[in-house]
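Quick question about two entries, pasted in order.
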Amino acid sequence: MARRIHQNAGIPEKEAAELLEGILELLKATLKNGESIAIVGFGTFMVRRKGPRPGRNPRTGEELTISARRVVSFRPSQVFKEHVNSPGQAGESGPVEKGLPNQVRTHPRIDEVSKGLT
């Protein structure tokens, strides 16, 4: 992803990697605090609490209790779903390519965030 940011935004690859790492760290910290993250046109990441529940060891069949925990879930936006399922996209005509879309849209806030990382 950092390489794609470097190519599309025209910033040095090292800066792109630092920017990406900073954004990911911010996302992880926000989710760890139990806050949701909504990215317009992409979707929402949220933390849900799961209570303890009965389970079974698939190898031995032994019954056990699965402990309570927090899990991250993602709900894609309608725009994102439409993009993924639109005609002519990868998947209909061939294998899905990994990485970002060919064009990365920049947001004015990215410049502010990247300044804080250097």
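Here is the second entry:
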Amino acid sequence: MATRLAILTSPAGETATIVKAVTRAAEFWGLRNAEAAALFDVPLATWNRMKAGQFRGALDRDKLMRASLIVGIFKGLRLLFNGPLEHGWPRARNAGPLYRGASPVDFMIEGGIPAMMRVRDHVDALRGGA
């Protein structure tokens, strides 16, 4: 239980590392600032500070969950694809029943954490891990 609680809080020293991982994933996927801010559920000004390495705030449970899901999806895609799909899949329109013509990023922005969890599960299932 202590390990689980440690994951749900963000010591100040870890915040910069978490923010850097999320901003790098967003950059790798080619997300516009507005998309990335919406996906991470922060104001655009906060996202810009995060990208610039100037964020000094704390990350609440919501942001830690979002960060975990974004990094998990990023890692899953790196293991699943080699080439353009590795970075292009999150923004590509998807005709599958989960996305119904939307991109995974749009689906996640619209649906929040529950949608992000479904995308993570989908990527893991494609890898044969679910």
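Reply: The two ends are 24 Å apart (CA to CA). The CA atoms of residues 24 and 77 lie 14 Å apart. Hope that helps.
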